[in-house]
Amino acid sequence: MNNKLKPALIGGVVLGLLSAIPFVSTCCCLWALLGGMLATYFYVKQSSIPATAGDGAVLGALAGVVGAAIFLFLGIPIAYAMGPVTRAWMLRLIENLDPRQAEMMRPQLEASGADIAPLIIQGLVLAVLLVIFSIIGGLIGVPLFEKRKVATPPPPPNTGGGPGAYAA
Question: What is the reported pTM?
C-alpha cells in the first residue's frame, strides 16, 4: 500500500487544489478524472509489476479522498469569502442579458450569501462526486499508461481421471 500512497497524494493534491480555486473549479469533475489518472500514471511509472484495474480503482479512491479533503478545507471557505464577488458577477451577467430578470433575482442572490449551511451541504455532495470521478479516472488511467502485459500463469498439469485420460 505504501507504493500507492505517494502517487495518490500527488493526484489528490492536484485534484483538491484545482477543485478549490474559484472559477477554475467549474470543471471539478474533470479535475477529479485528472487526479485519478495522474495517480495511476505515477504508480505505473514507479511500479515494477504491471498495474491492474483494481490498482487503478484503489489509486483513484485514495486520490479522491485526499482531493475531497483538500477541497472541503479550502474550497468551502474560499467559496464563502468569494460569495459577494460571485453574486455581483452573476447579476452583471444577467443584467446584460435581461435587466428585468436581474431585478427579480437580486433578492434571491443576496439572501443566498448570508448562510453557510447550503455551501457545506453542496461541498459534501461535491466531495462524494470527486471521489467517484477520481475512481473512474484511476480506472481509465490503467489502460492508458500501463503498456506492460500481465503474465498469465501456465495451465495446471493434467493429473488424469478426466475426459481424454489414458488408461494403462
Answer: 0.76
